[in-house]
Amino acid sequence: MKQVDYPAVEILIVDNGTDDTEALEYLHSLEGQGARILHIPGPFNYSALNNAAVRQTRTEYLCFLNNDVEMMDSAWLRSMIAQAMRADIGAVGARLLYPDHTIQHAGVVTGIGGGAGHAHRFQALEAEGYFNRANLPQRTNAVTGACMILARHKFLAAGGFDEVNFPVAFNDVDLCLKLNERGWQSFYEPRATLIHHESKSRGTIGQG
User: Fold this and answer.
1) Which part of the chain is the Glycosyltransferase 2-like domain (predicted)?
2) Rounded to an integer, what distance in angstroms lies between the CA atom of residue 149 and that of residue 176?
3) Residue pLDDT, tens place only, 76-100
């Protein structure tokens, strides 16, 4: 189960009304390997589900990770934690690829489409692109909650995810902007690269 090279990791899985027998059996098997399962039935509210999960943990750093993210190696967490430990950094996001290895997330830029959008989307992994930006660690407007790490005290200081105004989408961007306002800039870390089967388990309503 553990696909991460890090000395101490607490794994808490939020089950939002899973009814698939195979999936439930898999969750049960993960409990036997040390993971905890938090069962929260009801309508899907990404913000509420993850805020509830945070209340059930005591770790110094929080990693929000979608169930449709696939690890390519075990070093990704160390790269992200190293940035999240910096006093001036808030949320840290990984480089996420589609299964065909084109870019799904390389930071979030506000203003796209009147809201926010992922930078360098669909660019080939091996492409240099605009000033090689997709391959360079850098500060950014925001990062996606599909794979996000930040210090617990910063998450709490920003008020966590907004359960009322952003129950499904843009809650990650909202959190990043609140962190930015407090002097904790969002950061994109491409040395942590993972596969994101975008919204695979929920269709288009899931977190991006």
Assistant:
1) 3-102
2) 11
3) 999 999 999 999 999 999 999 999 9
